[in-house]
């Protein structure tokens, strides 16, 4: 069994550090503290140049505050998808629900059209739904390439039963990737549930000694910790080696 380790990164340096430490795939975003937002075009271009666009998935999320979007926001996401793919992204990460908490199929179809040949990944908006199984089945029907989910739990390791259910339901139609509070020690249990891809941020903190304060936000900034990436990769490879092909 091959297990993919995906790392969420926020800059080109973090992308390089993650890949050098063994990461298979990346999700590029900004503002992870707020759940992640769309990165700038300059950042997408820099990350694609650093590690290659084929392993780079770009989060396209116009704002925080839930996943129900109006027509203007849907159009903005579509435009950002086109720009991100043009800038070198091999995939885009999106998510939208309707007011009933089910998949917003119209938004997803528009975004898939905008992505063209790029992969389309549905993010943890599924975990915000009261009916995640219905959202999952709809994603399979719509032909989404991958879904990022914690199984509806605060942390993926606590959602392994639902993750296993999603793997069974999805079969070969969609890749189920576990994400949400994942740390390297969780990975064997997640892989034991049949999940073949894990996602984590591997964040550290730098710049705590630099000037900050009013107008500058919190002290310090996020960086990718290559030691955490390497530990996650080792845990994934070790757990995969214990399973049958």
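^ structure tokens above, recovered residues below v
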């Amino acid at each position: 069994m091959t297990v993919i380790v995906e790392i969420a990164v926020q800059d080109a340096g973090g992308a390089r550090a993650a890949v050098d430490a063994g990461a298979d795939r990346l999700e590029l975003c900004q503002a992870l503290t707020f759940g992640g937002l769309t990165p700038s075009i300059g950042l997408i271009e820099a990350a694609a140049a650093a590690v290659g666009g084929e392993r780079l998935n770009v989060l396209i999320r116009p704002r925080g505050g839930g996943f129900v979007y109006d027509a203007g926001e849907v159009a903005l996401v579509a435009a950002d998808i086109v720009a991100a793919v043009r800038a070198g992204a091999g995939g885009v990460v999106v998510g939208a629900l309707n007011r009933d908490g089910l998949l917003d199929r119209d938004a997803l179809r528009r975004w898939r059209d905008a992505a063209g040949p790029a992969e389309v990944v549905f993010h943890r908006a599924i975990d915000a739904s009261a009916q995640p199984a219905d959202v999952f089945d709809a994603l399979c029907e719509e032909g989404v390439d991958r879904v990022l989910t914690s199984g509806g739990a605060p942390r993926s390791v606590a959602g392994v039963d639902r993750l296993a259910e999603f793997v069974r339901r999805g079969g070969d139609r969609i890749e189920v990737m576990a994400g949400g509070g994942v740390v390297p020690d969780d990975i064997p249990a997640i892989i034991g549930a049949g999940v073949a891809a894990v996602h984590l941020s591997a964040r550290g903190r730098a710049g705590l000694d630099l000037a900050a304060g009013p107008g500058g936000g919190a002290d310090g900034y996020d960086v990718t910790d290559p030691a955490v990436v390497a530990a996650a990769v080792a845990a994934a490879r070790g757990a995969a080696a214990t399973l049958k092909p």
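Strands lie at 4-9, 25-28, 56-59, 91-94, 119-122, 146-149, 175-179, 197-200, 203-206, 221-224.
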